């Protein structure tokens, strides 16, 4: 009887181990896929924000219509990552627009509205601040420090070792490389 109980215990332990392994692997795969998709959307959105702001600040000609269309499209795509919160508001609106918008999309909508203005150049500081709020919110969601600890634990890559410019200079390495350019 004891042998049967021991065999059953071993079988249950193996089943639990396999289930845990499969569940954790699937969770990791889904987390990584979602993280990758979110970072890709973030990169495309950030690129549009920076490009518009830099062109406004430098007084460069650019087609605001195209810039705004790209940003608007990215805001719409963002709704799939950050759907409106169902709170009974806007019940007469289409499904994706019912409820309250997530603050991360508000940062983008506010940026869109500022870029659209004729005097958008006067709002460069505001656009930069909104961009930083947008990046910070993504940072909180992606949680790179937590992810880096996970990478450190499960790979040979060390991502969380702090190394500042002061550390670099203190190491005695040359910070600047001087190069002469010969004239033709």
Explain the overall architecture.
The relative contact order is 0.08. With 184 residues, the chain is mainly α. Helix 1 (2-57) runs antiparallel to helix 4 (124-142), helix 2 (64-78) runs antiparallel to helix 3 (103-116) and helix 3 (103-116) packs antiparallel against helix 4 (124-142). The chain contains six helices and no strands. The chain starts with a helix and ends in a 14-residue tail after the last helix. The protein is flat and about 85 Å long. The protein is 66% helix and 0% strand. The model has no long low-confidence stretch (mean pLDDT 87).
Produce a short descriptive summary.
Helix content is 66%, strand content 0%. It has six helices and no strands. 11% of the residues are buried.
What would the average pLDDT be, to the nearest integer? Answer: 87
Radius of gyration: 25 Å
Shape: flat
Number of helices: 6
Order of helices and strands: HHHHHH
- Structural category: mainly alpha
Largest sheet: none
The separation of the N and C termini measures 94 Å
């Amino acid at each position: 009887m004891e042998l049967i109980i021991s065999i059953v215990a071993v079988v249950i332990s193996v089943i639990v181990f396999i289930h845990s392994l499969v569940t954790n692997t699937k969770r990791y795969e889904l987390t990584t896929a979602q993280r990758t998709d979110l970072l890709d959307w973030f990169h495309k959105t950030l690129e549009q924000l920076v490009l518009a702001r830099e062109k406004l600040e430098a007084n460069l000609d650019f087609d605001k219509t195209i810039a705004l269309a790209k940003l608007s499209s990215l805001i719409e795509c963002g709704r799939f990552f950050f759907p409106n919160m169902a709170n009974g508001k806007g019940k007469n609106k289409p499904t994706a627009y019912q409820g309250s918008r997530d603050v991360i999309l508000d940062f983008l909508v506010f940026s869109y509205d500022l870029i659209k203005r004729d005097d958008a150049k006067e709002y460069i500081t505001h656009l930069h601040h909104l961009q930083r709020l947008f990046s910070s919110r993504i940072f909180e969601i992606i949680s790179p420090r937590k992810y880096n600890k996970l990478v450190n634990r499960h790979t040979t890559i060390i991502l969380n070792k702090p190394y500042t410019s002061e550390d670099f200079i203190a190491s005695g390495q040359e910070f600047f490389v001087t190069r002469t350019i010969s004239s033709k």
